[in-house]
Amino acid sequence: MPTTTSRSLGFSLDPRSDDSLRRQVFDQVVARIATGTLPAGFRLPPTRALARELDIHRNTVVRAYEDLEGAGFVVSTVGRGTFVAEVVGGTNGSVTQIRRSLPWDSLLSRATNVEPLGRVDRMARIPRGPNEAIQCSRLQPSPDLLPDALFKRCLDHVFRVQGAKALEYAPRDGVPRLRALIADDLSRHGVPASAEDVLVTSGSQQALDLVARTLLDPGDTFLVDESTYSGAINLIATAGARLVGIAADDEGPDLEALDRAARAGAKGLYLMPNTNNPTATTISRARREALVEWSHDRGVPIIEDDYASDLHLDGVPPPPALRALSGEVIFVGSFSKKLIPALRIGFVVCPKELRPRIDSLKHSMDLCTSGLLQSALAEFIERGYLAAHLTRVIPEYRERRDALTGSLSKHMPDGVTWRVPQHGLHLWLQLPPSVDADRFHDEAQRRGVVVNPGAFHSPNNTRRDGVRLTFCSEPSDRLVLAGRRLGQAAHAALGTAAGGLTTQDIT
Questions:
Q1: What is the DSSP string of 244-303?
Q2: What is the pLDDT of residues 188-201, one digit of tens each?
């Protein structure tokens, strides 16, 4: 009789073994429990099914399960089945061999242990309070502003026209129709581009990851704003680079600070010129021109992230893109903030020398970005739905911004300042030196408002002088209440009395 194997659990029984088949079933279940392969609560196959897979008598499996339950490894409930026990009992001398678990701590790469990732994990574990907590930390549109019905129409159209072909792999650089539409949109923004210049990615996060993989070796220096996008910090840090934060003035990154940081060599400078995340500042035209000159003089490439494209709340477009000033700039964009986060469609436009390298890296990572979603997005844009969507949501975002800033004006103590942003979906609350951002974060959370402290966006975990407030995920009335609660949190952090707040305001 040959060795028999269970397809579902991978058991292998050898009838020539000195151990009985019943004992072999018992031992193999115990071994898998000991290594965590069968976790607590896992439902074992029914005795009849396992016996059929192993080509043995059902009674053999029944008795093995009885032995397992008697030893405390499993619990059985009539009508429900047999489950791995929460607390495993003794082996009762029945286990012939239990594999030792692998030394995972010593096998992990250094990238999994970089400080920024640990910071993100700590933030993720912070209790977010009850469901009714006001979200001023989430940088994504509220569900009522997502065009689900219109996007479903486009998906349905793609299936009607393409049928099963919509479910095939897409071209590695993106669906040609979408690439052409993105190029047209870039040209509308003054960024010269053709479809051949556009590489579609799985969100701008993948675009940034591809750029980091293309440019960086462990130990390289990479320059960023002193407060910047936490996702970029994580990607660059996991690539093994040394992050250097660059101070800024009202016009943008300080050029002298850039020169000092780049003297020993730097592989790149990451910027969000139209609306920095988290400070919501915009780089002036003059500083943009100076940055492009600096890039060419020092041989340091600029990565321009235009994640909030088209979200100009007061109808005033920002200065020309860096990419419009130089074809050497690497330009990254996304549809997550202005349309649908779950699309996970972004793109990168880069110098032609880099294009084949980035293209090859992307193909090795994911083969392609979803062709189905790309085709649906192309249909959405071509029908004019995106333009209509922006016409609808921008006034709403403007109203929400004004509701939050108006409430802050009424309730914030002296010394706390902010600027009303013209672009994007968040603002920066600048705290006085006597208030630590983490303390303010905790006080706000106690009052039911969730914010992002500045350290979350600091490349070296040093910034403690402000917090980011988003206004895209909540309606205006709740943002008015958020301003009141944040005012109270600031007074508490300062140790001053807050007037005009009642118990009803903070419950």
A1: EEE-EETTEE-HHHHHHHHTT--S-EEE-SSS-TTT-----HHHHHHHHHHHHHHT--EE
A2: 989 999 999 999 99
